[in-house]
DNA sequence: TGTTAGCACTCGAACAATTCGAGTGCTAAA
DNA sequence: TTTAGCACTCGAATTGTTCGAGTGCTAACA
């Protein structure tokens, strides 16, 4: 177990390193006003902290740098309290003050404010598409063979897909089919859509429409695999501001991950326990993120976490500020969404 | 006017520099098999070329590097012929071989193949939204105050927007209104939609529906300013592979432009004369692109250019190959789209 | 008159040597 | 237990040196 003095030293080392990016030496440390003992004492303590794995040297006679274990301890136990300025709070609030029309715009704006307030790269994940319920389905024929199938959810989200129509089916049939869908499937969560279509609707269709099955199958297929929901990024280029990424070789894998979007998407989608979570360095599973920390927070409507927002930065990240900002945005976002869903 | 020998030397210098990225000296040049004279002669010629502004020195005793004027001349008059390999042609063809369902996927794939074949950053702009015609309009009420307005175009593109509904209007009115729209506005180009709505439809609406005007205005407004069409990027991180951008300071403004998307969008939208266009270095208006060249090509349906595809790279770009690839992709894309539009 | 060989000169890149400062660990005294 | 002092280490910055690839210029040559 660490002594109080060791904790103090660890905290000051990490705080200083986060601020400066430079290895912290015993003399620098002893000059801090929070620290009352000599550099020699500090050296002894630092030697112990190093042996315990909380800090490291970059080379034999260098100052100390936090290890991942050190950051982990810091994040779990030593975070200095942080308050947002009035201006920050105001900025965040203004994002959510306007009337919401489109969920996607809102998520984009959330990402923007996050990267603006932190100077890191931010990511926002929209509410899982499958959570929402069917409000209306519509099929608009384009020509003899193709039509656009449109699904409107109760959240106002519109999903559409071009589908092929068998030649044996005419416009009348199509209309009948859509009517049956809308009668029977209103309010069904999209996630259950496939099942309901196969069980409840198939029978009715069979009675009214010839050749219903090939279209039905196409529809079921396309609707069951909705486009991956969108991930919204902001401040991608902020990554380049970090001195630890001043070397192109080190940014490239990172930018590749970010450009891909898919991996990040999956990573965030997994995040569904409430609250803030911090992944430091190698705790991240994705290769290329060894020098990064990812901080995620979920937002919810009522009690149910719907999606996540996140900040990606170097392991030497301003954890305290980021977590505070993230919490604030998440809770404002949750509030805005809750209000919005209630009005639906 | 340049002599034949000067042209030859200029071409060889640029070819070599594009390949190697290193300043080209007289001795290196004299060893090339295309060149039959001594390094001293070449030095004299190079001095002339430099005086004329086609090449530059990086420092007083260095080899020569093409100037923007040099690149311009090269692109206009000296491009070495370039043929695509069978494999390349095959790759391009395979992108357009599949049945097209969604325009956006197609554009995304076009961008991908471009960046894959060139190792530069590529950009694809979808057909201008306003070109297409109204196929069907639909309004789906979400609750008392809001509804989703959906517009389907003849190209299968779906545009949607959440709109507010005045409380005095009920579901029946809404339906009537939509019916009137669909009767009267079918086939109207979206660009004319606003006008037609105000002239042709307003009268009819007035006779049938109370309070039609506030909704109508909202609709007109939202539909008249459709979301900016999407720009598709691919290979953003390829920028980092270029040695001229190995310095973070030089990439940052560039990545910022790319991240913004808006400026690039405008730039490409302006491009509506047929064929390939090359902008070299300072010919680009955007700040941050001084070290870049942008090569754009338009694709068309029938005779009308609809959109553009482009490659963004360093001024030291493989112009010949890029232009060839771009031409090929543009023409295959045009063919695919033409076929597709005809089937609509 | 155009071409080329030769030569002195320039400059950047690469490398080694040097210095400087911030850091360390250890020891002995307070 | 703390701290002053000291020898030692190492990276970063600075300086000097060498090397090679380049240039421009001049004079001789075809």
From TrEMBL, chains A, B:
Residue span(s) of domain Heat-inducible transcription repressor HrcA C-terminal: 104-323
Record key words, sorted: Repressor, Stress response, Transcription, Transcription regulation
Source organism: Geobacillus proteiniphilus
Stated family: Belongs to the HrcA family.
InterPro entries: GAF-like_dom_sf, HrcA, HrcA_C, WH-like_DNA-bd_sf, WH_DNA-bd_sf, WHTH_transcript_rep_HrcA_IDD
SUPFAM superfamilies cross-referenced by the UniProt entry: GAF domain-like, Winged helix' DNA-binding domain
Gene Ontology biological-process entries: negative regulation of DNA-templated transcription
Pfam families assigned: HrcA (PF01628)
Role according to the record: Negative regulator of class I heat shock genes (grpE-dnaK-dnaJ and groELS operons). Prevents heat-shock induction of these operons.
Gene that produces this protein: hrcA
Protein name: Heat-inducible transcription repressor HrcA
Example GO molecular function: DNA binding
Keyword Repressor: yes
Keyword Transmembrane helix annotated: no
């Amino acid at each position: 177990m660490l002594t109080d003095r060791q904790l103090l030293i660890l905290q000051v080392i990490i705080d200083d390193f986060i601020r400066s990016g430079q290895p912290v030496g015993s003399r620098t440390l002893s000059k801090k006003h929070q620290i009352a003992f000599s550099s020699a004492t500090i050296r002894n303590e630092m030697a112990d902290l190093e042996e315990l794995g909380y800090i490291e040297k970059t080379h034999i006679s260098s100052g100390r740098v936090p290890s991942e274990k050190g950051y982990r301890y810091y994040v779990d136990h030593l975070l200095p309290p942080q308050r947002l300025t009035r201006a920050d709070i105001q900025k965040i609030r203004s994002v959510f003050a306007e009337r919401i029309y489109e969920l996607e715009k809102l998520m984009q704006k959330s990402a923007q404010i996050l990267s603006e307030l932190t100077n890191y790269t931010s990511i926002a994940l929209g509410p899982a598409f499958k959570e929402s319920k069917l409000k209306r389905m519509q099929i608009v024929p384009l020509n003899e063979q193709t039509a656009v199938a449109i699904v409107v959810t109760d959240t106002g989200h519109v999903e559409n897909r071009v589908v092929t129509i068998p030649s044996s089916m005419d416009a009348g049939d199509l209309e009948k089919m859509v009517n049956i869908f809308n009668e029977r499937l209103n309010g069904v969560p999209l996630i259950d859509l496939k099942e309901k279509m196969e069980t409840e609707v198939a029978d009715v269709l069979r009675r009214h429409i010839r050749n219903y099955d090939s279209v039905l199958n196409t529809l079921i297929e396309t609707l069951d695999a909705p486009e991956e929901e969108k991930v919204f990024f902001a401040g991608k280029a902020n990554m380049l501001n970090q001195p630890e990424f001043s070397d192109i070789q080190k940014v490239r894998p990172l930018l590749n991950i970010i450009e891909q979007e898919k991996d990040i998407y999956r990573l965030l989608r997994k995040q569904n326990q409430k609250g803030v979570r911090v992944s430091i360095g190698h705790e991240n599973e994705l290769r290329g993120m060894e020098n990064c920390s990812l901080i995620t927070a979920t937002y919810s409507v009522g009690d149910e976490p719907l999606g996540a927002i996140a900040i990606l930065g170097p392991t030497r990240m301003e954890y305290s500020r980021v977590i505070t900002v993230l919490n604030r945005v998440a809770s404002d976002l949750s509030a805005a969404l809750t209000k919005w869903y209630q009005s639906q």
